[in-house]
Amino acid sequence: MFKNLTIKTRLIFILSFLVVFLLGIQMLGLFGMSKANDGLKTVYEDRVIPLGQLMHIESLLHQNRIAIVAALVTPTPDLIDKNMGTFEKNVKEITKTWDAYMATHLTPEDEKLADKFAEDHEKFVAEGLIPVLVALRTHEIKEANQIVVEKVRPLYDLVKEDISALIHFQIEITKQEYKYHQNRYAIIRNIFIALIIIVLALAVLISAGFTRGVFKPLEKAVKIARGIAAGDFTQQIHVRSADEIGQLLQALKEMNDSLMKTIGQLRDSETHVRAMLNNLMEGIITINEYGVIGTFNAAAERIFGYTEAEVVDKNVSMLMPAPYRDAHDGYLARYLQTRKKNIIGISREVVGLRKDGTTFPMELAVIETRQGERHIFTGSFRDISARKQAEEQRTRLIRELESSQEELKSFAYVVSHDLKAPLRAISALAGWLAHDYSDKFDEEGKEHMGLLIKRVYRMDNLINGILQYSRVGQVRGKIVAVDLDQLVREVIDLLSPPANIVISIENTLPTVMAEPTRIEQVFQNLLSNAIKFMDKPRGEIRIVCSLEDQHWKFLIADNGPGIELRHFERIFQLFQTLVPRDRVEGTGVGLSLVKKIVEMYGGNIWLESKVGEGSKFFFTLPKTVITTNSSLRNKEEYEDYQ
Question: Is residue 214 included in any domain, yes or no?
Answer without folding.
Answer: no
